[in-house]
Design goal:
about 675 residues; alpha/beta; 8-stranded antiparallel sheet; 7-stranded parallel sheet; 21 helices; 27 strands; about 40% helix; globular; binds zinc ion
Length: about 675
């Protein structure tokens, strides 16, 4: 019986188009799945999309679509991208599929039947963006997770008795140190759980885009319970079909659940608690990888520095991206992405590294031995350098495998590529091209040995690297005259398996060198994409009224925007409106203005510059709560002085009669600097 291996990516939330961060997680899982298949494991690799929740309902509404249409479109983008990249997932689950919905309800019933669900009333601040109740006080108070304004929600909910699992969870983390990896994440989770757990609200009645609670369809199941369940529903949990039940028995528990570090709490606290409540086995390992930074700063929609995968696929291909991400980033830690580093790595390790080794070795075999793998000379006439390569290869096979199976991809590839470097040096020192000019028997025999040794080392690197760069290695493999590399039993890889006299396939370069224009091309493609998206921003919501909040002090001059010519019926023309440059800004610093109760001095990032703005919102907002918050700025307002401070622009807020000012804000994320029109 083959051992089984079940691996999952998180299912991706369809509020965003797929980007390089999603690709990173998926690539890591794909590489692991491919290696497991080569090792002979009965592998099941699952990915999918998470499609319910208020955020999707609202995003769909803003786009003028039904939630299902909206989810269909974005989910299709993920599937198309994975297909284009050759991702080998065995299934793709969507949480809006019938199979999933029924089985989630089954899980809910199960947890209810074991006595871990009760009904209660909840009042609290809810962050729509994070789908999370948060510890914040007061209507509109910013979410501690993301800084967006929260909503006060009071609803009758079903609660999950999370508090009952504190001890069992702590015991789990202690008994199974590999349950959460890496160590830093495990420590964070242990201290979070050690601090006490509150029961978790697991239903919502304020919106309907979700899976109805069984026997109480006014409620929908909390989006995280719905989403987490995919890992078992996809393989048959809760199904009445025999085949599905057998698949579940066979594959669950998962061997590896890969996640990003931002969703550790959901996967390492809630998920095992749900499973414990349902009396189901727990996954063996949950591995959290770090963030992909763009040139050292966090990639985020708000910074507008998210890199699309398609750009890299178009210019350098999927293997280049896969190799770069797994080689460059220490898995588990944050890593930096830049087009410069990508191209540099591509040229050094792929074009000049394994690509060059393949093309020169195979070209010389074609030229000097009619394209047939040459017979090396008898061991007695071999030189020390020949056996050193063989020895080196044996060591690399062992070390690379261990490192890979510990998910230390960067080190594993470094080790494999040390063999490429050793063979390059070996070829240079032995000058096979000089021997190729000679016809005497000794020279021919030396040449045969050198080219055999190089080709065999190339075969070994190719087999080891296949899970990471599947396309190029498949091509090198067939150029070596070998069969389907995916079927090669990796656990049997050893020196000396290259078939003597075997006919090579036709030799083609696999990694053409990239020049500087590749970087410029990728940068340009990303810029074009960004400006296309900015132009397509939806109009500002109609109910937002621009009220000059900083104009309350008597010193305020009349805003220039008001002097725009009006048309006879009291309305302004679109041209007049276009004179007002409204932009999204982000508050970087905020403090009270001395001697002015109502004023705050703010530093606001407009994407291109930081502005000082003085605003009359001190009675509504504590300065520290504004940091990080996205605001709307009238960017082309003439500068004016308030209490001796220059105010360069104006923040837009609603000023209710006799009430406090409320800042205009966005429910969906929007890049800093985006113009409202
Ligand atoms: Zn939030």
């Amino acid at each position: 019986m083959n051992k089984k291996f079940y691996i999952t990516t998180p299912i991706y939330y369809v509020n965003a188009r797929p980007h390089i961060g999603h690709a990173y997680t998926t690539i890591a899982c794909d590489a692991i799945a491919r290696r497991q298949r080569m090792l002979g494991a009965d592998t099941f690799f699952l990915t999918g999309t998470d499609e319910h929740g208020q955020k999707i309902e609202r995003a769909a509404q803003a786009a003028g679509k039904t939630p299902q249409q909206f989810a269909d479109e974005v989910s299709a983008q993920f599937r198309a991208l994975w297909e284009r990249m050759g991702i080998t997932n065995d299934d793709f689950i969507r949480t809006t599929e019938e199979r999933h919905k029924k089985r989630v309800q089954e899980l809910f019933r199960r947890i209810r039947d074991t006595g871990h669900i009760y009904k209660g009333t909840y009042t609290g601040q809810y962050c729509v963006f994070d789908e999370l109740y948060v510890d914040a006080v007061g209507s509109g108070a910013p979410c501690p997770e993301c800084g967006r304004p929260t909503e006060t929600v009071r609803e009758e909910n079903y609660f999950f008795k999370l508090s009952a699992f504190q001890d069992r969870l702590l015991q789990l983390y202690t008994d199974q140190p590999d349950f959460i990896r890496p160590e830093t994440r495990r420590n964070e989770v242990m201290s979070f759980v050690g601090g006490g757990l509150r029961d978790l609200s697991i239903s919502r009645s304020t919106f309907s885009w979700g899976i109805p609670v069984p026997d109480d369809p006014k409620h929908v199941i909390y989006v995280w319970l719905d989403a987490l369940a995919n890992y078992i529903t996809a393989i048959g949990y809760g199904s009445s079909h025999k085949a599905a039940q057998e698949a579940f028995q066979k594959y669950w528990p998962a061997d590896l659940q890969m996640i990003g570090k931002e969703i550790v709490r959901f996967h390492c606290v809630y998920w095992p608690a749900f499973l414990m409540a349902a009396e189901l086995p727990l996954p063996k390992t949950i591995m959290a990888h770090g963030w992909l930074l763009f040139e050292e700063s966090k990639m985020s929609k708000s910074r507008g520095n998210i890199v699309r995968t398609e750009t890299i696929l178009d210019v350098l291909g999927a293997d280049a991206l896969r190799y770069f991400l797994l080689r460059e980033v220490v898995f588990g830690q944050d890593g930096s992405f830049s087009f410069d580093a990508l191209v540099q790595r591509y040229n050094a390790d792929l074009a000049n590294g394994v690509g060059n080794l393949a093309s020169r070795t195979l070209t010389m075999i074609t030229r000097y031995f009619r394209g047939e793998v040459p017979y090396p000379s008898a061991a007695v006439s071999q030189k020390a350098g020949d056996s050193a390569i063989a020895e080196n290869a044996r060591k690399v096979i062992a070390e690379c495998g261990i490192l890979f199976d510990q998910y230390q991809f960067s080190r594993a590839l470094e080790v494999a590529w040390s063999l490429v470097a050793a063979v390059d040096k070996y070829i240079v020192e032995n000058e096979p091209w000089a021997l190729g000019e000679k016809q005497d028997e000794e020279s021919r025999s030396r040449l045969a040995t050198i080219l055999y040794t190089s080709a065999e080392a190339l075969r070994i690197v190719t087999a080891l690297a296949h899970p990471v760069i599947p396309d190029a290695t498949s091509r090198i493999w067939s150029q070596l005259g070998l069969d389907d590399i995916r079927k090669f039993p990796l656990s049997e890889l050893k020196w000396g398996q290259l078939e003597l006299g075997a006919k090579l396939g036709s030799v083609q370069p696999v990694f053409p060198r990239a020049d500087k224009s590749a970087i410029e091309r990728m940068q340009k493609m990303e810029e074009q994409q960004r400006s296309a998206l900015t132009d397509a921003q939806p109009d500002a919501p109609a109910q937002t009224t621009a009220v000059p909040v900083a104009s309350t002090p008597p010193v305020a001059a009349t805003p220039t925007a008001k002097s725009a010519a009006t048309v006879p019926d009291g309305k302004i023309s679109i041209d007049d409106f276009a004179k007002i440059e409204l932009r999204v800004g982000q508050v970087k610093a905020a403090e009270k203005v001395k001697g002015a109760d109502k004023l705050l001095r703010l530093e606001v990032d407009l994407g291109t510059e930081i502005r000082q703005v003085v605003a009359g919102i001190a009675e509504s907002y504590a300065p520290e709560l504004l940091i990080g918050r996205k605001v709307v700025i009238v960017a082309n307002l003439a500068p004016r002085k308030l209490r001796g401070l220059e105010s360069n622009g104006m923040i837009v807020a609603a000023s209710p009669e006799g009430g406090k000012a409320v800042l205009a804000s966005f429910l969906e994320d929007v890049p800093v600097g985006t113009r409202l029109k």
